[in-house]
Amino acid sequence: MKRLSLRIKILGAAAALVAIALMGGGTTVWMVHRMDGALSSVISSKTAALNAGQEMESSLGMQRGLLSYYFLDGNSEWLTQLDQQRFAFEKWLKRARELADSDVEREILNSVESRYIRYVNMREEVVELYKKGRMEEGYKMHRDVRSPFFSIRDLLEQYKQVQYDTIGALSAGIRSQVAFFDAAAILAMLVAVCLGIALAVLFLKRVLFPIRLLADAADKEGLNSVDEADEVKALGDKIQKLIERVDSTRSQLEQSREHLLQSERLAQVGKLAAGVAHSIRNPLTSVKMRLFTMERTLSLADAEKEDFDVIAEEVRHIDTIVQNFLEFSRPPKLKIQKVSPSDVVDMAIQLLHHRIESYGVSVDLIRQRKLPDIDGDPEQLKEVFVNLIVNACEATGDGGKILITEEEGVAEPMGRVGVIRVSDNGPGVPEAIREKVFEPFFTTKEEGTGLGLAIAARIIKDHRGWINIKGRSGKGSTFIITLPCEEDGAWLRS
Question: Which pTM was predicted?
Answer without folding.
Answer: 0.40
